[in-house]
């Protein structure tokens, strides 16, 4: 049976080791260690050139497979299939190293910040996340950084191998015609929803008050008070305040430009003037330089937004809504140019299905706030501005657009062409990846723990 509307077979295998750090994983699957009281014996079970596969990698994914099986026994070859997928991931990394395929530090940082924000949102707060793992947020991020970087490198390798593959409408129809009619999936109600977000702009008075407070703290530090003590008392950065404002070592381009530029102008022990960034106002102290890295501590103050600030954003968004309803501006154009949510703004404002990347969202995957808003809406209508809080806790307003509402149905080319085309494209990319694996699996050194010697690793056909 050919399955579609799910991640393709090859993509499942290539991403299996990365499920634990996926932005859609639960907090318990974060992949950055285990809660207090849980101990796991670890060890190397496979080597692909200088890349290693740990027993804990395999065990974590196997546990997730068991959870998804809901008590049903897993196939006997499950661990071999997981180990095979992990080895294939390591093959990608090994060849990326040989071919000098790298990702930029700022891309890694951006993806890491996005995922951490998601996990914080899921568990409720940074403090709860730290309590769950009994580790400071800074340490959790450092442990996750390597895994995120590896995933981005693997994705870049996949893009180089199969990124230019495309399908024609004829190929899509042929793909669909090969599917057994009694195996076509049946879909529940799905919707397409767009949003345009506007942040509440901080007023000048609140900014002046934050700057004045930081200047006061700077004067106290210059007069002899301890920076770390004041950071613990006043800093509004929950990730570093408890550490006396200490952020640790970062390389160039890993922190926002305004912060980095101010920090690198200092001598060790020096204090910056007040620095404004997207996060608020900072007072920075450079601690140490080490090669191309540097360590700092800071005190962060975030000017508060008030009702007047939110009302102003709502008025601007209401004007934009009138333009869209009056057909003088498309929703997609407005989202791209005006939305403060760059992730959806770059997609014409459309919310994406995290499972397959499409814009079709099953109702049971919708955020409750979105679900109860669109529940009574007609297709094509747009809400008035609604209060909204972003993933990083900023006050905002947004409008929601119900683009489509597809009733329950069996898969067909008319209603589900995009999904079928995506599945056909995945199948074609899989073949390109299979050919690449067949060509390259014999070019690397492979060593497997005797316990798994019966697993056929680095085979092209899975």
UniProtKB/TrEMBL annotation:
Entry keywords, A to Z: Isomerase, Rotamase, Signal
Organism classification: Bacteria, Pseudomonadati, Bacteroidota, Cytophagia, Cytophagales
Species of the source: Hymenobacter luteus
Signal peptide range in chain numbering: 1-25
Domain PpiC, first and last residues per copy: 188-288, 291-401
InterPro entries documented for this protein: OMP_Chaperone_SurA, PPIase_dom_sf, PPIase_PpiC, PPIase_PpiC_CS, Trigger_fact/SurA_dom_sf
Keyword tRNA-binding found: no
EC number from the UniProt entry: 5.2.1.8
Gene Ontology terms for molecular function: peptidyl-prolyl cis-trans isomerase activity
Protein name: Peptidyl-prolyl cis-trans isomerase SurA
SUPFAM superfamilies: FKBP-like, Triger factor/SurA peptide-binding domain-like
Coiled coil: none
């Amino acid at each position: 049976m050919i399955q579609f509307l799910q991640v393709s077979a090859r993509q499942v295998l290539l991403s299996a080791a990365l499920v634990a750090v996926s932005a859609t994983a639960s907090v318990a699957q974060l992949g950055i260690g285990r809660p207090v009281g849980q101990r796991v014996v670890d060890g190397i079970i496979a080597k692909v050139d200088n890349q290693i596969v740990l027993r804990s990698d395999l065990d974590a994914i196997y546990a997730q497979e068991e959870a998804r099986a809901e008590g049903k026994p897993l196939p006997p070859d499950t661990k071999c299939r997981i180990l095979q997928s992990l080895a294939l991931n390591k093959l990608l990394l090994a060849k990326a190293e040989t071919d000098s395929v790298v990702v930029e530090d700022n891309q890694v940082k951006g993806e890491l910040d996005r995922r951490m924000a998601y996990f914080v949102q899921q568990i409720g707060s940074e403090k709860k996340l730290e309590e769950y793992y009994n580790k400071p947020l800074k340490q959790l991020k450092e442990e996750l950084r390597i895994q995120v970087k590896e995933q981005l490198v693997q994705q870049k390798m996949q893009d180089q191998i199969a990124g230019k593959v495309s399908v024609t409408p004829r190929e899509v129809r042929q793909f669909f015609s090969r599917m057994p009619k009694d195996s076509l999936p049946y879909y529940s109600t799905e919707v397409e929803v767009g949003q345009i977000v506007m942040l509440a702009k901080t007023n000048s008075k609140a900014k002046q008050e934050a700057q004045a407070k930081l200047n006061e703290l700077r004067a106290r530090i210059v007069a002899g008070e301890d920076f770390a003590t004041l950071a613990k008392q006043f800093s509004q950065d929950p990730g570093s305040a408890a550490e006396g404002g200490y952020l640790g070592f970062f390389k160039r381009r890993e922190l926002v430009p305004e912060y980095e530029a101010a920090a690198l102008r200092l001598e060790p022990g020096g204090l910056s003037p007040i620095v404004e960034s997207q996060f608020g106002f900072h007072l920075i102290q450079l601690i140490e330089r080490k090669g191309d890295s540097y360590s700092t501590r800071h005190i962060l103050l975030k000017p508060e937004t008030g009702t007047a600030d939110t009302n102003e954003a709502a008025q601007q968004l209401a004007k934009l809504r009138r333009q869209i309803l009056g057909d003088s501006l498309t929703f997609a154009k407005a989202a791209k140019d005006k939305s403060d949510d760059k992730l959806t703004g770059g997609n014409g404002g459309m919310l994406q299905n995290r499972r397959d990347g499409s814009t079709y969202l099953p109702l049971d995957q919708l955020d409750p706030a979105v679900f109860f808003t669109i529940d009574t809406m007609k297709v094509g209508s747009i809400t008035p501005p609604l209060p909204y809080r972003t993933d990083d806790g900023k006050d905002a307003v947004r409008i929601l657009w119900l683009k489509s509402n597809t009733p329950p149905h069996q898969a067909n080319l008319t209603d589900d062409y995009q999904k079928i085309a995506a599945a056909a494209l995945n199948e074609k990319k899989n073949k390109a990846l299979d050919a690449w694996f067949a060509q390259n699996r014999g070019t690397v050194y492979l060593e497997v723990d005797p316990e798994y010697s019966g697993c056929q690793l680095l085979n092209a056909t899975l």
